[in-house]
Write a structure and sequence with these properties.
The protein is α/β, with parallel strands linked by helices. 26% of the residues lie in helices and 23% in strands. The radius of gyration is 31 Å and the shape is elongated. The structure holds adenosine-5'-triphosphate and magnesium ion (MG).
Length: 571
């Protein structure tokens, strides 16, 4: 793509994270920027993650630094190698590379364990034997200080002995935990003696049955950062309160690095839900076909639907890296994709809901080829020849027998232009026994070849068309928002958010008629169907049984719907 349209490289304005990094470099506080992207392999990545990925990889890359891909696999019961693979594929697809810096938090389990013993020996951690409910009660509230456990005063020797026996598997789940001795009265609840280890007799997808104690996120995360020498640990705002704990652990174990955590706003998009747990609910309820159902907000779904990684990156850059949470209008993502495809996608003609047109004054058995522009945005892409003949298809919705005032397309007695071809006039409407229109009989004006009348007369509409005898058939899947409400989670008490669906989020059209230039296209091909949107050859497509997905429409159709909803007080 040319520089003119490539907005995927770097944002125009320097955000607060980039400013901090540049100041740290200038002041000599860090020599090289090192970041990490730390997904938990418990689901597939969604468009929200792409914001984190673009920021983590982008900021380091721009400054000659590097980025780790580190799986946060500290929770053995929800994780799956399938997700580990899909996440790597998605990050690569977005255009980022971690080189040989693929890591798992579980790579550090031995080191993390050793440091936990150091904390115990320093009197900074203790084995607690309160159960989960008691721990919660002892924690206090935002207004009220907590109370330290009656087990907190065990001797260092007893703590070490119990911790080693926890590791050796002597105790059942939930019977003991290891906790940091910080401050049960701290206004930040996260600082009230946070858990370091818990017992979980569970098989781990990488370490197998080696461990039956697993480190908590608040402990494993900062120390994994420290082990890797991460300089700027970037995460979303919900971890703001965890920063104090983060710093405490980094300061209290003998690690050599001093990573710092910075938080930015999560990306939320209208008409969708974003959390992996909610996406899994949609799959389990059978509302979508799986993680890569093209209506899902996952990266695998966007890829399948036909979105490009460059458009997603351009979108993420366009929304910036602020500290204020908000819901971004889905239209912004669609616009980024439209803008790119407007420039890159060849134009083709496809009739999605065909209505036969017979040109009664066009000689039977004859055909000709008309020149059509491949992409008006890029004259260098040239032209192609499109066959024209006596029998054609036009879009059913482009004809009305009894048109209202503002309908300017084809109607009885009316003349319109067929794109790149001729003016035609509708002379007769043919119907079947049920009254359904089966065919239009029209005449064409041979003097208008190419689409203009030498006498200067005008028509009010230009229609796309496909020659019936030359048409290629295809299935076309029209995708739209999965939800009918911009914020699917804003439901009344007792209502299920999953019911707020858009009934036409998928419309499958069979036997669409495509111009013959599309006969040979392979999976991965993108083009614009004139007047209909941008389309992509789906992975189900085969030669002779083509399947296209609609990536986006040509214009935003939801703005109008939202306006109506607002007007009716429903938004
Ligand atoms: P989810 O809530 O969807 O399950 P998560 O935060 O649990 O997401 P992780 O796999 O733990 O997902 O996240 C990996 C990284 O991606 C984290 O640094 C997290 O802050 C970031 N991230 C997750 N969701 C978003 C989002 N919507 N916008 C920006 N960053 C996100
Ligand atoms: Mg999570």
């Amino acid at each position: 793509m040319s520089d003119m349209t490539d907005k995927s490289a770097a944002p125009e304005k320097k955000d607060f994270i980039r400013k901090i990094m540049d100041e740290d470099l200038e002041a000599g506080r860090v020599k090289t920027i090192v970041t990490r992207f730390p997904p938990e392999p418990n689901g597939m990545l969604h468009i929200g993650h792409s914001k984190a990925i673009v920021i983590d990889f982008g900021t380091a890359e721009e400054r000659g630094g590097y980025t780790y891909l580190r799986f946060d696999d500290t929770n053995p019961t929800t994780e799956d190698t399938m997700y580990v693979e899909s996440i790597q594929r998605d990050v690569h697809w977005l255009g980022f590379d971690w080189g040989d810096r693929l890591r798992f938090a579980s790579d550090y389990f031995d080191q993390l364990y050793e440091w936990a013993e150091v904390l115990i020996r320093d009197g900074k951690a203790y084995v607690d034997s309160l159960n989960e409910a008691e721990i919660r009660e002892h924690r206090g509230t935002v207004k009220q200080a907590g109370e330290r456990s009656r087990y907190a005063d065990r001797s260092i020797e007893e703590n070490l002995d119990l911790f080693r026996r926890m590791k050796a598997g002597e105790f059942p789940d939930g019977s003991h935990t290891l906790r940091a001795r910080i401050d049960m009265a701290n206004p930040n609840m996260k600082m009230r003696d946070p858990l370091i280890y818990r017992i979980r007799h569970a098989h781990h997808h990488r370490t197998g049955d080696k461990w039956c104690i697993y480190p908590m996120y608040d402990y494993a995360h900062p120390l994994s950062d420290a082990i890797e020498g991460i300089t700027h640990s970037l995460c979303t705002l919900e971890f703001e309160n965890n920063r104090e704990v983060y710093d405490w652990f980094v300061e209290n174990v003998p690690c050599n690095a001093r990573p710092r955590q910075y938080e930015f706003a999560r990306l939320n998009i209208s008409y969708t839900v974003m959390s992996k747990r909610k996406l899994l609910e949609l799959i389990e309820a059978g509302i979508v076909d799986g993680w890569d159902d093209p209506r899902m907000p996952t990266l695998s779904a966007y890829r399948r639907r036909g979105y490009t990684p460059t458009a997603i990156r351009a979108f993420v850059n366009s929304i910036g890296v602020s500290k204020a949470n908000s819901i971004v209008d889905k239209m912004q993502l669609e616009n980024a994709q439209r803008e790119e495809l407007n420039y890159t996608a060849p134009r083709r003609m496809a009739v999605l809901e065909p209505l036969k047109v017979v040109l009664t004054n066009y000689p039977e058995g004859e055909e000709e080829h008309l020149e059509a522009v491949n992409n008006p945005e890029r004259p260098e892409d040239g032209v192609r020849n499109v066959p024209f003949s006596r029998e054609l298809y036009i879009e059913r919705e482009d004809f009305m027998e009894d048109p209202p005032k503002k309908f300017f397309r084809l109607a009885p007695g009316r003349e319109v232009r067929l794109r790149y071809a001729y003016f035609i006039t509708c002379e007769e409407v043919v119907k079947d026994a049920n009254g359904t229109i089966t065919e239009l009989r029209c005449t064409y004006d041979p003097a208008t070849r190419g689409g203009d009348a030498p006498d200067g007369r005008k028509v009010k509409a230009t229609l796309h068309w496909v020659s019936a005898g030359h048409a290629v058939e295809a299935e076309v899947r029209l995708y739209d928002h999965l939800f009918a409400h911009p914020n699917p989670l804003s439901v009344k008490e007792g209502e299920d958010w999953k019911q707020n669906l858009n009934p036409t989020s998928l419309v499958t059209l069979k036997q669409c008629k495509l111009e013959p230039a599309l006969m040979e296209v392979d999976q991965g091909y993108r083009c614009q169907f004139e007047r209909k949107g941008y389309f992509y050859v789906d992975q189900d497509s085969k030669p002779g049984a083509l399947v296209f997905n609609r990536i986006v429409t040509l214009r935003d159709t939801w703005a109008k719907i939202e306006k109506q909803l607002k007007h009716q007080g429903k938004l």
